[in-house]
Amino acid sequence: MPHAAMPKEVVLYQAPRDWPHQARKIRQQLSAVCGQCVHRRVRVQTVDGMVYEGIVLGADGCHLHLATGPDALAHGCGPGVYGARFFGPFAASAILTLVLYELLVITLLA
Question: Which domain range does residue 104 map to?
């Protein structure tokens, strides 16, 4: 019985050669910044233009964990918290996880 021919592979996308190095560098930088902001109120804007406010719970090297629910409001976040649109108004302790390399701006709020 003859073997079935293997399908030909076609590369649809390949990242630029320096992209992995740049992505790691940005991720390390953002992780350090997020680590300095733990338990502080911030506003975060993503590369897609989404804006969130909340309290930084931590960063694990790849993700930022942001408390955005009503509990975060009680701890000093203003009325502009946008996490409720994802979790609904009944989310007592909404935690939003954002990918570090998708973050564009992190602003510390007084």
Answer: 39-108
